[in-house]
């Protein structure tokens, strides 16, 4: 009997005695290489306020308010509605004092600059406008053009988009915005569980796919999906979204990619500091050759909606003639958003010199703006058209309010938000039972020496304790992000980033030093950085001076929260004034790009997702439905283009 036969005989005897061989973990197969038609790829970019979705071959996506109204299951059920412009931290005892202090800084910045004619601006007090606006009474317009509430006589289970926005408050419907500040809107109120939020998203996306894209849901098995996610993401939420798209909705395959990287694809830039000013959050990230530098990721908990609310507060100080306006009223929020987009600008807070750049974007469609003088008080008019109410025409006189509101993005204490986390950083994964070979496993199997050097490098990348006016500096970074793959450890900035579960160098660190670092991180996350300071901080976190020079030369602003006249030039001016002197000498030009290829900045990330669908390298990133069913979240670690 040969050796091989004897071994085979021994194996049979072991099995008969009940001794089983160890089962090797299943190996993830290599990605399939196949020809894919772009018109069968759906690009999905979900935002806090707006959903953008379309085929990769579409010129423009379908743009829908990301809101759903669900019918009450019981007749006596209390009505619930997610806030749009209302948020936590606004009605604290310190809120008004903080607003006033922020407004003083804004006024100082405005009055210290010269207007385009070289003359220094004369301050205009709110009292001057208030005395006029108090006397204003609205004029009635044609009553035949009244708007109507959404018809609910047929008792639909849910309504989506514009129909949900105009549901009558007296009807038995709850109104939900399933995404808030870039993350799933999980809360303790009605419809706030993770299961309910995912059901809302599935209902909205399914409705739009059927009605706007005209794709029957039963045909989604022939389609693939590209999902754009925030740069600072919640791993558990992303896993649940992928599960919903592949298993519940039935897409055949999916690619998950970050918004900032897609923004560079959409704008045609190889490297940029991407500043995404959305409705409820502002995210920043430095992208180089299609890779998001993890240490540069930053998310600020304010956006265009906060500017709208600040503008309303300023209007009230000036005696706003539409006195019934309420932040809790959905249709009033729509009106305030339109007023902000029409009236607000940054035209008169620039110095006399012009800075070369793209033509700025002015978003003003619904109202006539009468500019009578470049300084002082100006008279405007606006119309209110509400369901079951006559259309009214108002006159309003405004001074500096149009400049002060957008300036709050650079002095966020003006928002009056107290006791809230204002800055978010990517935290280390807490682990997932479906993915036992995650970064915690890799960290635990490292040698003690490797752990010590890793922890030392991470400590260097931590931001310093907040200094004057929150101007923070953070050095370091790890170029290993570019490696990707299963062995790349995405140990992110965050107060828990050095919490080594398996021991290591951190355990040898004195408790006082550890407490000091964690206190500094907590203070950093509670600090409301202005937009210009956040950009400087993000760039300063890049690993090399060469990368920093690239980022200063290409600051890409996307999203709909900074669509104010001359915003591009104003931001450029702020960066030039505040950037470190050492870089002023070596950076040829600081360029702020707001409309690459003359595109709407709100669509650039979605367009980048469409470009991604056509790239050859995307073939390696597809996660197929069967693979997800078998391997689960491991597929994201293996196939995602960023370190999971």
From TrEMBL:
Keywords (A to Z) from UniProt: ATP-binding, DNA damage, DNA recombination, DNA repair, Nucleotide-binding, Nucleus, Transcription, Transcription regulation
Highest rank taxon of the organism: Eukaryota
Pfam families per record: Actin
Gene3D superfamilies, A to Z: 3.30.420.40, Actin, Chain A, domain 4
Biased composition (Low complexity): 446-455
UniProt subcellular location: Nucleus
Biased composition (Basic and acidic residues): 1-18
GO BP annotation list: DNA recombination; DNA repair
Any one annotated GO CC term: nucleus
GO MF, one example: ATP binding
Disordered as annotated region, ranges: 1-26, 422-441, 446-498
Family label: Belongs to the actin family. ARP8 subfamily.
Function: Plays an important role in the functional organization of mitotic chromosomes. Exhibits low basal ATPase activity, and unable to polymerize.
Protein name as annotated: Actin-related protein 8
Species whose genome carries this gene: Oncorhynchus mykiss (Rainbow trout)
Lineage per the UniProt record: Eukaryota, Metazoa, Chordata, Craniata, Vertebrata
